[in-house]
Amino acid sequence: MKVGVLISGRGSNLASLIEACAAPDFPAEIVTVISNNPGAKGLEIAEKAGIPARAINHRDFAKRDTFDACLSEALEEAGADFICNAGFMRILTDGFVEKWWNRQINIHPSLLPAFKGLNVHARAIEAGVRISGATVHYVRPEMDEGPIIAQAAVPVMMDDTEETLAARVLEAEHKLYPLALRLVAEGRVRIVNERAVISPAPEGLPPTLIVPTV
């Protein structure tokens, strides 16, 4: 599977995907990294790994759909047939999502459908939940919607701050995203009635949930 990774910032999940794809038996290859932010540190991570990387600044486009069309064209020119959003802080147009339907996944730092959107960790702490985590899901036009491929759960400690919880969830994300991409690339994920069905289940783990050691 030829993967294009979309980023906006530091690229920590990108780094975990690059490391996973470097394994000889991993069924996916990252062919391009694109950021809407020219200053994204993740571009440097990609370049150091020898992966073609570029910025397409969304501020250079008057309309959202024009930017999305340019982004899609760049992905296709790079040979990507699948997209991983890894901290890509843009809401994509319906047309883009439809063009890449079931060929684009995203990682979100909560156990969806809980805590969609921004300020996730502060909201989780304020709500008093005991478990939070991360979700990898297929992208749909609605924000943080779509069939769930895999989730990772982490505890919320009584003395957690937004920063400490974010760090714990991020550690789980780095394990979760490569697992989810492997499942998809191996052809083990089917969408049935807008639900991701995984067969067979990952060895030693339930099909839609992993709980990393923390």
From TrEMBL:
The gene is purN. Pathway: Purine metabolism; IMP biosynthesis via de novo pathway; N(2)-formyl-N(1)-(5-phospho-D-ribosyl)glycinamide from N(1)-(5-phospho-D-ribosyl)glycinamide (10-formyl THF route): step 1/1. GO terms for molecular function: phosphoribosylglycinamide formyltransferase activity. It catalyses: N(1)-(5-phospho-beta-D-ribosyl)glycinamide + (6R)-10-formyltetrahydrofolate = N(2)-formyl-N(1)-(5-phospho-beta-D-ribosyl)glycinamide + (6S)-5,6,7,8-tetrahydrofolate + H(+). (6R)-10-formyltetrahydrofolate binds at residues 64, 89-92, 106. It is an enzyme of class 2 (transferase). This is Phosphoribosylglycinamide formyltransferase. InterPro entries: Formyl_transf_N (IPR002376), Formyl_transf_N_sf (IPR036477), GART (IPR004607). The active site is at 108 (proton donor). GO terms for biological process: 'de novo' IMP biosynthetic process. N(1)-(5-phospho-beta-D-ribosyl)glycinamide binds at residues 11-13. Residues 1-181 form the Formyl transferase N-terminal domain. Catalyzes the transfer of a formyl group from 10-formyltetrahydrofolate to 5-phospho-ribosyl-glycinamide (GAR), producing 5-phospho-ribosyl-N-formylglycinamide (FGAR) and tetrahydrofolate. One of its GO terms (cellular component) is cytosol. The keyword Protein transport does not apply. Its EC number is 2.1.2.2. It comes from the Bacteria. Keywords: Purine biosynthesis, Transferase.
